[in-house]
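Quick board copy: two proteins, each given as sequence then tokens.
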Amino acid sequence: MDRFPNAADVDFHSPLDLTKAAAAVLDAEGRISGWGASAQRLLGHPPEDVLGRPAARLLAADPGQRLSALCTALRPRSTVLDLSCRDGHTLRAAVTFSPLAPQGVAATVVVAAELEALRGWEAQLAMLQGLATESSVGLTIFDTDMRVVWGNVSTDLELAGIAQYVGRPAADLFPEGEFISRHHPPDEDQIMEHVLTTGEPIMGMHYRGRAPADPVREHVWSCSYHRLVDARGEPLGLFEESLDITDRYRAQERLSLLVRAGKRIGASLDVRRTAAELADVAVPQLADEVLVDLPPAVIEGRQPPTGSAPGHNLLRMHGRTPEEFRTTPVSYPPSSPQALSLATSRPVVDAATHSSADEPAPADRRSSLFVPLVARDAVLGLATFRRSSNPDPFGPEEQTLAVELTERAAVGIDNARRYTSQHAAALVLQRSLLPQHLPEQSAVDVAYRYLPADSRVGVGGDWFDLIPLSGARVGLTVGDVVGHGVHAAATMGRLRATVRTLALLDLDPAELLTRLDGLVAQDSESRADDGLGDEALGVTCLYAIYDPVSGRCVWASAGHPPPIVADASGSVALSALAPGPPLGLGSLPYENVELSLSSGSVVAFFTDGVVEDRRTDIDSGIDRLAHVLTWQRCPLEELCDRALSTLPPGPQADDATLLLVRTRRLGAGQVVDLELPPDPAMVARARTDTERQLETWGLSELAFTAELVVSELVTNSIRYATGPVLLRLIRDRSLLCEVSDNAHTAPHLRRARRDDEGGRGLFLVAQMSQRWGTRYTGSGKTIWAELAIP
């Protein structure tokens, strides 16, 4: 479809042209002797009504001597007359009188046209003249061979004279220019050929180059191409419109650059990455190269140094990815523009680049701009914008743009520096709250891995622990506080300490989680007004107790993934019991799960960071970990490495904590049980059997102390219990003496007075043992004491 369907109605012929104007001939007396068809169309009078009659009759007003003077003039004269039309209305017309005989007055040719049409034509003519002589739009006409034919004054000025290019191809006008619009062929010859062949105009192409009249400064033009055809529709060539939009284009580029900078600079909370982001945004639109120099303190997350000489002890950032990141030391002399920029906190332009003291000055660098990185009134470093291929110096607007980009980068670097400092402090806090090493136990072999989340996410709240319990048993716990940062780490440390304290009370797992749930809920309520409550009560925990004597393992979970068990044969089992609610909700009770584990079984305790990822669901992660545990005969350290090696590559979104334990069973020769009736006479038997067993174990040196402890514990149980008393001796890393009965009353250590007949038994037990205590079971209680083996 034709873009301009009314273009054929545009006519640049003058209304007074003989092919269009009304024409008549007057004789010497002013009578009409000739009347053309065009005159009839204009005024409506047929020839028979006007021929031979005075022309004055066609005038709407009395002409006086004016018409006679026009007819007798010796040269053409033009005037405006009001003419009477046949339908009675008056037409104001432009009329030209031209004598046919220069000697004498034989006849006069009269040409007339409507005055309004003539004025419109004159306006069009003036417009064309303005385009040719005064318009800022460059107009250039090319023939069908795409050679220059004509250019208006604007084109003449840009080319420093159009005459030297007439007859030359279009490519000679701007030999080093290029189209930067990509929605059409980038070659000018192809564009012009397309317009000539199809007649389809191409408009709004952006062209970048250097005009012959201004070869130093790079310009951008908006160019359009249109085909020229003659009256028969045959191509005559084409013309080009070009408008210099350099200032507008650069303003748009600056705006788009700032928009990109706002999206990209400073989002990573990483000092080195932020420096790379500044370079990525500014190159090549503003500079050919951007260098960022920072003090080591800023990179490490500390406060920038003050009082030192500007330009000394800086590190230059290199690389765009973490694998490429590296630094090189740079230093600038006090007289250099870099040092001046750092000292004054202002940008400095230098046409001939001064390099650092450690870097030779490159000969091809034409212009450099040094901008200090300033945030919160502190100078964090220096950004250097360099140009080599572009000889244009940095103008005021480009300096302003560079300062704005650098300010954004400085804020991002300062935020990254502060985050690095806070993250390091949180990491130190977290690691100080986690166990530095797990105590060796006869019950289990242990290996663990803690993989912190990516630094951009922040320190998490994972914890794990191994807690020695009475009777050679061991408590195992793993937990997770939802969220990241110092608060999550502090909450983790608080909960880990609480779990350890409750575990030493010898509570079973369900009872321990019930008490911990109440404490978390109470703590959250008391701290909610300050906004410091546990992260949306998102605390999960799993606690297990393993007994190496019976091989019994009991565990309970508060919203935490249950452990995965691989027995000695390598078969893997998952718990069928769903975890209870997370801590702090207080809605449902917790249940114990009991397992019987053979010696050599491997149990995996883990947080969701080990099995869950943004790209995979938790079930797939559990299956992946379970598959690793089928290699349970491998050393635990190797199993840990295998498990973490299966994590998806890339940054960790959450902490990953893995605790692997391989169970052991105490042999029959290490445990002795003796059931005694509730008879005081049985105390002597207990002492005798203890002495005999210690001799068998080669621990005769402990006989006196052990007999005294056993005597006091058995005596106390027989006195208060109503059923049989069970004495158990366990030879482990220490000698364990346990006395169990069916009473639920707790013995209390007290200081006996001089005249008291009793009350000294537990005092003696406490003095002679490393540790002692009481634990409760479903059938009663057990009093135990540990004696160090010499």
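And the next:
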Amino acid sequence: MTDYLFFLLLGSAAGAIIAGFGLGLLITHQGSGVVNFAFGAMATWAGYVYADLRRGAYPFPIPGLPERYHFAQDVGFWPAMLLAMLTAAALGLLVHLVIFRPLTQAPALANIVASIGLVIVIISLIDQRFADNAGLRVGPILPREPVTIMADVTVPRDGLWLAALVIAIAAALWVIQRFTRLGLVIRAAAENEKGAVLLGYSPALLAAATFVGASVLGAFIVIMASPMIQLSSTVFTFAFLIPALGAAMVGRFRSIWPTVVTGLAIGMVQSSFTKLQGDFSWFPQYGARDGLPFIIIIGAMILLGERLPDRSAVSTWKLPAVPAAKVNALTVVVPIATAAVALLLLGPLWRGAIMTSLIGIVLSLSLVVLTGFGGQTSLAQMAFAGVAGFTLSKLAIEWNVPFPIAPILASVVAMVFGVIVGLPALRVRGTNLAIVTLAGGVAITEFVFKNPKYVGDASTGGAQIPNPELFGWDLGLTLGDQASRPIFGIFMLVIASILALAVSNIRRSSSGRRMLATRSNERAASAAGIDVARVKLQVFAVSSFIAGLGGCLIAYRFGSVSESSFGTIASLTVLAVAYLGGITCVSGAVTAGLLATSGVAFYGLTQATGSVGQWEALIGGVLLIVMAVANPEGIAGGIRARLAARSSAGVIV
């Protein structure tokens, strides 16, 4: 038992980070009604600022400015801490004023997408500003000398100190929440924003204050933990944020102590899994750590209620409109013919960009069905795509299942995973569903994609994919000494075109009308005789099947699949790009494919300017934020609305 106590105490640092992040998410939600998925990324930037200051420099985040201001030497702990905290406060205020305040009355999807855009921007900034040393570990801050708890249990002291600091912060926040005027006003605004307005309090000012406070808290946690856990662009951004979401959900984004206790428990129990894996052969070797937050989130929804506490705002926006599907020669034949000619005549680099865009179109089509038609949210689309990719390898290599049966069966397996992860949609939607699917996608990634039993290892060459063959024709990207073959691009174009036509037909079908009715008003749809639960599972099934086909195309293109192609960042990027293009129509999916990273648009800009490539992720994130704030219908929707306005005004277009 002492061994288990050792591992439990060893996880106190991770538990403290999770609990601290949970508090930050709680504070932000109480003051603004926003679940900020970019909270971990914002805290990570402040952590890098502190680390750089200890090396004698201050990084500037704006492209075009000098990368950093250099001091003569390490500025010291207190100046570095002060500057990092001020940076975090300024970042929190800026994010509130520029991004989330304009989205106060927006649907949950717009807030989710904007926060995803912010994550992409911050990660790309870190990758650019700290390209040579993305992983940093600063010098000790908290006391590190080992402490003996029992005769046989000796653990580092710094993790216990961090846990004590988080508990002290939680106690202070509890006192403020319960016994101060500010705390009472924030709680009142969280319950009913209209009531706060009538009482003379500014919800915008309260939201700004909580964004600043939460940002400073997140930065403090990251800085204190950075000597124990190496800084990287993703570890605090995702690895600690997702369990923190679970902890905050247990506290229903209202209660401090359930959030803190759950956060500490998650970190300590995850640490004990290391011992369990060594003691019991039946204990999962992969996925248990990241599957735990998923189980906690599902449990919180089952035991504590269906939804996060809603914020009663003055009014709300509707989701972007879904236009009628227009299938004619101009919308079908011309784009397909143009793409086919480009694939046949352009060089291999342009051909590769077109192939990337075609994959982006397929993945975006899956979100058009899920979110555009069905009104559901998923942050796990690339996890479903990865399930299909790895399944395709097993089917084609080990069981010799031929093309096209293998990719269809692989996509069916992805569909099963999609339905399972989407089961909570029967009870929740919006931000709640986004949290569930994000945690579910991470659990799939850890349990499946990193398990050599399913994906192979270096000795087996990983998960290999044979070329697709049909009627004796090899359709692969490479064959012998032939690389980037146009026939593979034509094959991808055919698949993307078939799926685009299928999605258009769904929009015009009775199934599509049921999806739109459910998306618009679930209660009204149910009263009209529509089986809402069936429709929700249907959209998840169709969406994940399409995503699975996209994963198969990725697998065929690269000849193998790996976890790096289907991780959490990839899932967030897919949703971001789909929303940017226009998530409610096929033309939006096509626009999204063209805008995909390394797709046609960015490759063309790189060729024209010679320097866009290194900033394409940041540019995409900024465009996504702008689109979420200014035009929730996306680029395609904005163009369609302008054309309609000009037409109604009698202007010949």
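Board note added afterward: Confidence is low (pLDDT under 50) at residues 312-317.
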